[in-house]
Amino acid sequence: MAEPTPIPAANITLISTKSSSAISLSQRIVRAFVLLALCCALLFSLVNLVFVYTVEDQFFYHQLKQEQQRQLQHSTTVTPVSPLMQLYFKPTDFPKDIVEKFQQNTRAREIPGDAGRHYHLLTFDHPAHPQPVWLVMEVSQQLVVRPIRTEMLLFYGFTTLLMLAGAAVIGLWLSRRATRPLLELVQLVQQSQHTLSQHSQSQHRQSLPQGFSAQFRDNEIGLLARTLEQAFARLQQFVDRERAFSRDASHELRTPLSLIQSSAELLLLQPDLPTAAQQKLQQITAACLQMTQLINTLLTLSREQSLPDNIDPAKQPLAVPLLPLLEQLIIQHSDLLQHQCLTLDLQLSETTKPLAVHKVSAVLLQMILANLLQNACSHSLPGVVLIAADEQGLLISNPVVAADLPQEPAALFAKGRHSSGYGVGLGIVQRLCQHSGIGLAIAINDDKTRLEVRLSWPL
């Protein structure tokens, strides 16, 4: 056995995704109602302000037009009736606080003055004067909107808050009413999953109640429920067919294995049997037992049932010695190693006591290591297969061709040019590791010449 060396760290790129808290459908409905109410309230306030300002300006404009008609009824200009109006023949004669502002914008017909004064202007042609005549009305004492503008804005703000509160209440009520059937459907599916998890050993179980979609109205939720019912019905039929196939396949596989094992055991009882033949028969008996355990485990995993007591990691009080297990696997794969022109380098970091794995089923650990070793030998180039182990984990490294390596790590056990198709694949190994609590990591070294599979023992 070679000197122990530390297991090199696996070169693995971790990709983390940051998930943000999702907004529920009810929250979206409430937010939509509140946003709609806010837009309506702002639009109403804006339209109302424009309306009252327009009405007020039209009131002053109407007074100026009446005075214009009165002036045109006389052959010459007369003094305006309203004391708020003044008649001017030149813009330079305007009140001093608006002369400069008017010169800056000669088209202005509403000009603010000083000290809170406000002016409205109207120009017209009079037969008695060759130049246009100007009517100027100071309306600061008749303004209605501007003095109460602050109160109006406060009123608009208060009504906006009331509208937002009412919209939130209505949106919450409608969202609960609209999503209640959907939540009932979700609860029904969740209850069926919980029932399936509690009765996983049952061979005749229904994922969802028969005809459950009839309790939903003929709308979008009802259409979704009917679609789910049809999908679950097809899925149930597929599960039933798969369960029947698993039951028949397990029976057909166990029968010849039992015959082989019983025949080998009968041959071992022969007194004059050569030693070499006894060793081969013992290997056949052990292989039959291992195949039986493998079939039981794979069928259990395929049916998503609880593991039997003899392979359940939680019910294993004793540690599994690693060296005898690896030696047994190496002997079983000796022909494959010789056929692939491979040399095995076994490195165990053993100090004062033999290396052992705790909280792991010996059956599951044997299947995991057997499949990984078989895949390493089957997918390897001629060279050295390294098996290094310590108290933290185990590393299996084999030479590979860079052109045969897939881009996705999950496809590393796929069939390549130098592959013969042995092994049950990485998917089964991953599921066995999950049931055993063993960490599984796959990586490629920096120069892309060796494939490294690392197992981390459960804590």
How many domains comprise the coordinates?
3
* CATH fold-level topology of the largest domain: Heat Shock Protein 90
Strand content: 5-15%
Q: Work out the radius of gyration.
A: 45 Å
What is the helix tally? Answer: 9
The average pLDDT is: 80
Describe the global form: elongated
Strand order of the largest sheet: 6-8-9-11-10
Give the total of beta strands.
Answer: 11
- List the secondary-structure elements in sequence, H or E: HEHEEEHHHEHHEEHEEHEE
Uncertain stretches: 1-20, 200-204, 415-424
Helix share, percent: 40-55%
CATH architectural type of the largest domain: 2-Layer Sandwich
CATH homologous superfamily (4th level) name of the largest domain: Histidine kinase-like ATPase, C-terminal domain
Structural class comes to alpha+beta
SSE layout and pairings?
Blueprint: H1 25-72, E1 85-88, H2 96-104, E2 110-112, E3 118-124, E4 133-138, H3 149-198, H4 220-268, H5 275-303, E5 320-321, H6 322-332, H7 334-339, E6 342-348, E7 356-357, H8 362-378, E8 383-389, E9 393-399, H9 426-436, E10 439-444, E11 450-456
Parallel strand pairs: 6-8
Antiparallel strand pairs: 1-4, 2-3, 3-4, 5-7, 8-9, 9-11, 10-11
Helix pairs in contact: 1-3, 4-5, 6-8, 8-9
